[in-house]
Design a protein that fits this description.
By secondary structure, the protein is an alpha/beta fold. It contains seven helices and five strands; from the N terminus they run βαβββαβααααα. It has two domains: about 10-130, Response regulator (Rossmann fold, 3-Layer(aba) Sandwich); about 140-194, Orthogonal Bundle (Arc Repressor Mutant, subunit A), CATH 1.10.10.
């Protein structure tokens, strides 16, 4: 079941020249429970914290957002009137996760925000999962070395040595890779895996 993110209390930075459309957007964000401010200067999340960023993709420029080339640290919505492929490409390259068409229609604000927040949460979760998998992959040579050490110490085959390493990891409630590293470092005696 998909959980709809709660937007109440979030801070929104609107990177757009102040005009009637941004005033309408600020009003709608307020009705949704968000605190919004408008600026048309490069974003500094330390000076002006924001939980979500809405950016004018029609007029945006490189350097407007501080995460150039990196994943956006917060959900981002592109405010877009143009159909120009270059403007859409700019929005994508800067990390936009949804589009809010201009002129802003109040009924379109909530779905655009929810899509951006949900997509950002999924992206953060996927990146963390990928990082954990890459770490485990980097540590696989340690597992192999620990299995070989257990084989020699316990005079058993590879399958039995791996089963011993797995039992030791389960007993300590840590990953097999961490257990292997600790065994090779002498923190866990090889006899504990035997």
């Amino acid at each position: 079941m998909t959980v709809i993110p709660d937007l109440v209390g979030l801070k929104a930075a609107i990177l757009h020249r102040p005009d009637e459309g941004t005033a309408r957007l600020v009003r709608q964000l307020g009705l949704l429970g968000l605190e919004a401010h408008v600026q048309w200067t490069p974003l500094d999340l330390e000076a002006t914290p924001a939980d979500i960023v809405l950016v004018d993709a029609d007029q945006g420029w490189s350097g407007l957002l501080p995460w150039a080339g990196e994943p956006a640290p917060v959900p981002m919505v592109a405010l877009l009137q143009s159909e120009a492929p270059g403007r859409v490409a700019w929005a994508i390259s800067e990390g936009a996760l949804s589009i809010l068409p201009k002129p802003v229609v109040p009924a379109a604000v909530y779905p655009a925000l929810v899509l951006a927040v949900a997509a950002h949460a999924r992206a953060v979760e996927a990146a963390a999962r990928m990082e954990r998998l890459e770490e485990r992959l980097r540590m696989r040579p340690l597992v192999h070395a620990a299995v070989r050490s257990i084989e020699m110490a316990a005079q058993c085959d590879e399958e039995a040595a791996y089963a011993s390493l797995r039992r030791a990891a389960m007993k300590r409630r840590i990953t097999i890779e961490q257990t292997a590293a600790e065994m090779l470092a002498g923190v866990i005696p090889l006899s504990e895996a035997g």
